[in-house]
Amino acid sequence: MPESAATPLSAEYLNMLGCVRCGQCLTACPTFVLTREEAEGPRGRIALARGLAEGTLTLSPDLARHEWTCLVCDACTAACPAGVQMDPLQVSLRATVAAPETLRARFYRWFGLRVILGAMWRLRIVVTLLWIARGLSVDTFARRSGLARLLGLERAMDLVPTSLSDDHLHADGTAHPPVPEVSAPTRVQFFAGCLMSTALAGIDRASIRVLQRAGCAVEVTRGQGCCGALHAHAGDLDAARARFKATIAAFAGSADFVVVNSPGCGAMLRDYAHHLAGDPDWAERARAFSARVVDFTQFMAPRHLRMTRRLDLTVTYQDACHLAHAQRITAEPRRLLRSIPGLALREMAESTLCCGSAGFYNLTHPETATALRERKLDRAASTNAEVIVTTNPGCLLHLQAGLTARGSTTRVRHIAEILDEATAP
Amino acid sequence: MIASAASLAADLRALLTASKVIDNPVELATYAYDASFFTQIHPHPPEVAVIAGSREDVSALARFAHARGIPVTPRGAASGQAAGSVAVQGGIVLSLHAMDRILEIDRANLQAIVEPGVVHARLNETLGRERLIFPPDLGSTRMATVGGMASTNAHGMRAVKYGPTGSWVLGLEVVLADGTVIETGSIGSRAKQSSSGLDLTKAFVGSEGTLGIFTRLRLKVMPLPPARALVLGLFDRLESAGESVQAVFAAGITPSAIEIVDQRCIQAINLYRPALRLPEAEALLLFEVDGAPAGARWEAEKIAETIRSRATRTEWSDEPGRMAALWEGRSVVGAAIGLLRPGANRAYCGEDICVPVARIPETLREIQRISAEFTIPIATYGHIGNGNLHPGHLIDARDPSEVARVQKVADAIHDLALRMGGTTTGEHGVGAVRRPFMEREHGAALGAMRAIKRALDPRGILNPGKIFADDPGDEQGDSWRQARGPG
């Protein structure tokens, strides 16, 4: 590789060379499946990144566009026999290419990532304002008056959950003792997440209750905030690294596990070790932190959980990409669901194909996101399930918005809510 | 008058109704390669790429290109390792990946009618729901398209019992170079065999897109065997492994697959899956048998008994969980061999030789000699039942000396295959990279091949630069580029 081409990409050059172009990733990739264009598949995107790194291609809006159309679902990484890690490769590529969107999209990106997600109190204010607006029917007014469309917020408003929580979970170090009391509880630090602790705080509370019932002492660790995944996938590597370090510092406790119920965050928390490997001050701390991170379903699956209620429910399970692909966890959530008396799990086709949510993707690429969502909802509908169970807040909001638009009575629920119901005293 | 790339794309957009035309240089850069090492170091972007949407468009495109002498290179998943689907002389790359409908599964007549872009795994998943199977079974099942399999006459692991893809293709709908659409195996036929006329199906299978473009395939399928069983054997001498394969055939058994992995592969598997704890050995063999449950069990026991005296360890099972465990070493070997040398990657060249089964041990020892001579680590595995070996070379692509040496390794391995009385390609095809060996491999028969090529494609527009080494008719593409001039 020419030395003059030193960019954030150079750190990933060996990773790129790992692609032997066998093509095994193609049929796993949502954008390739939809378009059949090589530049819209992982092999093509790696070729473009390599072209940039080697200087045979130059930065151009066309090249950037093919990177930004990627959902970063990591299905390609899971399919790759040569061990290429797409997520870090793309984080570095996105930090290199210019954001291709409109000025308005750039403003929202800056405002959303740097301002709102920069501190949890700001996010809580925004969610509270949304809650008040909903109470005063401001959203209905904004829609009817055309104001929502004018501000480009229509799609974002679709994603606001119908049962918006106003009872946010504050990461203030509160300890939740095990129920029933056990002599040697497993000590757990809980990663509360940004959306999960605010708009969807009910899911966080359900997760904590389930952990308590499994004999865990749960600490909602003080000082935590956003994990930085959205920043990294938006190409804002500086802000992302700041989030990584802040999170590691906050979780500097001695608990064996950091449990996370949002796989999008969990995958990034586990990737901190990779992203900070070149930083001598943080590499070892990042490695130790990432090794403690465990997904809620992976943590719960081997533990004893007494089912107290029968749930006569037919469900289908939607694999969140960052659980199934990035963390290779597919069996555990299914095992947990099957352990609930009365519950029938019916598998849908293509359960591991991305639903189109993918962080901000459903706002920046509505056409692709909607095509993937409709495909997913069709597959789910053919199982006749009453509930689509998933594990990620993004999937949950995106799919629910699609079901609402369809006028469907099917609901989407997080697996922690289902487990909470089945184990309630 | 030959048009520029931009006007070529514009003409094609006006002409084609169901296809996508790509002429953006960034996007064309992603059509410059397949899995071959050759295209890693010599990428060949086309002038235009077309994602075909219908047979009518393929025919119209061929007619258009034929009239203007523009090269057309058909492509499936571009997962080949011989640059067969890369436009080495420029022109149009024609992707058939989106033509992927399974048009009909004719259960009564044990046939399936499919479009060329159907991925092999999806075909067998669909057939499996009806307890049917398309037996050719590739390691590349998740990416290979059925059209690509027929174009290269792909063999795969079960060829030892079921033969190559060609044995399961009953008929083809082919767009010829001038756009004429023909059907081989007789129009509308559902017959499972035929002695009517020349067997054109056989001629087109394995022609790598040089004689015509497949737009539909009529495939023979069979009932899914009700049972399978697996036998694993480890050998401290390569010769014992070779003798064991012959002894199994001599015992009257034709396994559905016989796979070998060599010593380096065993070391790699142990690095990749330490829990498997395979003992140090020169070779590991896997025999798969299929059929009725009692028959499969009997054959597996018989194989185990036959090889026991030569092997250091033998085990067989017909229990799915155990079979998966026994098969695991073989299934991860492709990914595992990268671990033999951290920082190095596979270079697909000289990767597909086939030699007489009896000469496998000798060939494997020679490959290790070549490895030592050029100081390039090689881990070899393959389908020993048919003598097909896949040497995996591990190089650091950042080192120019290794890049140069691995190409010499490829030449040496191709030369070795011919010296052993074999062929330079068992199943991946000739493409652009094995063209120099065709004269030596086929002698006067290459002239007959060229005559067929000229008869069907007189202007040499279909996949030029492949198979037919130094054929004057092959220069068409180059002259097209020269006439077009820069830009």
Q: Can you walk through the features of this model?
A:
- The complex is a heterodimer of chains A (425) and B (487).
- Chain A has 425 residues and is of the alpha/beta class.
- Chain A has four domains: 3-96, Fumarate Reductase Iron-sulfur Protein, Chain B, domain 2 (Orthogonal Bundle); 103-158, no CATH class; 175-300, 3-Layer(aba) Sandwich (Rossmann fold); 314-423, Rossmann fold, CATH 3.40.50.
- In chain A, 50% of the residues lie in helices and 8% in strands.
- In chain A, the strands form two sheets. A five-stranded mixed sheet of chain A has the order 1-3-2-4-5. A four-stranded parallel sheet of chain A has the order 7-6-8-9, with helices on both faces.
- In chain A, helix 13 (201-213) crosses helix 24 (415-423) and helix 22 packs across helix 23 (393-406).
- Chain A is globular.
- The model of chain A is unreliable at 1-6 (pLDDT under 50).
- Chain B has 487 residues and is α+β, with helices and mostly antiparallel strands.
- Chain B folds into three domains: 1-224 and 434-445, Uridine Diphospho-n-acetylenolpyruvylglucosamine Reductase, domain 3; 227-338, 2-Layer Sandwich (Alpha-Beta Plaits), CATH 3.30.70.2190; 341-419, Alpha-Beta Plaits (2-Layer Sandwich).
- In chain B, 36% of the residues lie in helices and 19% in strands.
- Chain B has 17 helices and 19 strands.
- Chain B has helices at 5-15, 25-28, 37-41, 55-68, 120-128, 146-152, 159-162, 200-204, 238-250, 263-272, 293-307, 320-336, 360-374, 400-419, 438-442, 444-456, 476-484; strands at 20-22, 48-51, 72-75, 92-95, 102-106, 111-114, 132-133, 169-175, 181-183, 213-220, 222-223, 227-235, 257-262, 283-291, 313-317, 345-347, 353-354, 378-383, 388-395.
- In chain B, a hairpin with a 4-residue loop joins strand 5 and strand 6 (111-114).
- In chain B, helix 13 (360-374) runs antiparallel to helix 14 (400-419).
- Chain B is globular.
- The two termini of chain B are 15 Å apart.
- Residues 472-477 of chain B have low confidence and may be disordered.
- The A-B interface holds A 1, 14, 17-18, 20-24, 26-28, 36-39, 43-44, 47-48, 51, 56-57, 60, 62-63, 66, 79, 81-83 and B 20, 22, 24-27, 29-35, 39-40, 49, 51, 77-79, 95, 97-98, 117, 119, 121-122, 140, 142-143, 334-335, 338, 343, 345-346, 348, 397-398.
